[in-house]
Amino acid sequence: MRTFFALLLLTAAFIATADKPRPTKKQMVSQLKAVCQLILDEDYAAAADQFILPAGMSPERSREALAGLVTKREISLSGIDILKTEGTFGPLKEIFPERGPRWMERSAIATAGDCYGLAYKNAEVAGFWTGKQFKFFRMDDVGKLY
Question: What is the mean pLDDT of the chain?
Answer without folding.
Answer: 89
